[in-house]
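Step 1: inspect the first sequence and its tokens.
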Amino acid sequence: MPVVFADAALAARLESISAAENERFATAAARLHPEDRPEAIWVAGGCAVFCNPGGPVNQVTGLGFAGAVTAEDIDEIEAFYDAHGSPTRVNVCPLAHPSLVAELSRRCYVSDSFENVLVRELLDSDILPEPDPAVDIRIVEPDEYELWGRQVACGFSSTRGPSDEELRLGRIVAHQDDIVRLLAWVDGEPAGTGEVVIREGIGWLSADTTLPQYRGRGIQTAMQRRRLLIAREAGCGLAVTESHPGSDSQRNMERLGFRIAYTRVDMVKAKR
């Protein structure tokens, strides 16, 4: 299988799609919970989003691909989050303009976490593995969005069950526009989730969860295979997904031909 070379042009393409997804979070949150004052602004080619107090998707994505990032750009972003009472979290791609890291470092931002972005070509000649017939994967219809969102929350939560904040985020994810939601069923019970976004010839795979009692049964692999087929049938030449470094998810993705394109770092301002 050909190896995708991760240059600045590819990174700009992927980060623009990720920034647009950020904006969709805010749009969905505004419909569901206007009392939280969800909002998205575009600055220096990136999208800064506030969804809800303490929310994990309050972040900036896509900065540094529209030229140099200035002090005024970061001032605008910090003022946006200050107005919402939220810390500023910046997703930094290593292929972004170096002015981004320079300006964040000058302001005493530090690394907080990392995330791998993985890619895989989808060639017409590829023989993609068929999904496991033991796992029934169905496309979710609108009347099942609430069910799907709750399953996302349950899949990402601890064994104690989802918190109110996780359930809130699950609903927001479920009500995004223009995504294909999939739900895995085992023995008639919902067991795992996934989604795929088709944009600019790219199929972006995300929202991968498996309920604890169903883990180790190949559900995520089956979900990945189904979405690869959906992306190729939609005419995509590339599939993209994300994972925490060294995770089981990364291992499953690499078994299906994904390779790390680059690793993002989340940067936040150090507390004094």
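Step 2: inspect the second sequence and its tokens, then contrast the two.
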Amino acid sequence: MMKAVQVGKRLGLVGRRWTWCYMAVSLAVLFAPALHAAPNDIEPDTGWVILQKVQQAARSLDYSGVYTYQQGTVMQSSRVTHLVDGTGERERIETLDGVPREFLRQNDSIQCLIPERKLVILERRRGDRFPALLLGDGAGISGPYQVTKTATPGRVAGRDCTVIDVIPNDKHRYGYRLCVDPKNHLLLKVQTLTVDDVIVDQVLFNSVVVGDKVVASDLNSAWSIGDWKVLETSKVNIDLAKKGWRIPHPLGFQTISQVSRSMRAGMQVNQLVMADGLAAISVFIEPIDTATESKVVQGVMQKGAMNVFRARIGDYWMTALGEVPAATLRDMVQQAEYVPLSVHDQ
């Protein structure tokens, strides 16, 4: 059975939100002064304020460190350097094992460096990854989740941290356990949990420095890219409903974007991205290629917290991918409908 990560590569994306080009699909997190209240009783609005503080810390602090992402039996470490100056945010992320990759960000402009192809992929979008967490404006999380602070403190990368549980109110999403620096609100660790409290993946700092100890020269790329090919991803905003698609959203999920992307051999693939503030789902719709139809894997595929569900709808493949339970994706795809527009309607 094809692994979910292989499906991601085929669609031009790899791994989780903070992991690599096209779908930098960050995780959940929390902490704020309000946590000095009763240890296990945080009101939803207070939880939202906590999330805002953690998000703001990821965007406004100077920090540098090495973090490890574990998904099932796969582990990958990366180094991040983040600085804020008169030009705004500057960030560099480099993988430390596996295939070399670098990601250079200046505010909303991202360069994804692929050394073996001497290629730079440009994207212009908000590029938040760990230790950031919110998707969209994140304002609706108080509905799908409850936020509670545990009584026992944690420790990550030599730093004490406040442990916070983000508990889903239904079966459509996972829960999260977060470890947040109580002094500066920086997220140090996040684990994704099933309803049975089983850890399905996690990302955590192994080492981190904050403030004036961060060295600006660490933002410089390890590669000389002056003669590399530059490719800017092309996408066009679309309205899938006007194209005849009816795609149900799981409770609490709102549409973030609808675009058409040019993929391999010039094929246009429609993409819908939805989020509940913490979790994200991408839905890809592509015409069926009769030459490769028999090789396409249908049904559920899984890798850690990342699930994929693919099914045929008319003359199209619909593939839903996200860090949500497989049943959430299955129900959504199986309930989706396509009603081709007549010539008169187009």
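Step 3: confirm your contrast with the notes below.
DSSP finds three helices and 22 strands in the chain. Residues 14-219 form a domain with the outer membrane lipoprotein receptor (LolB), chain A fold (CATH 2.50.20.10).
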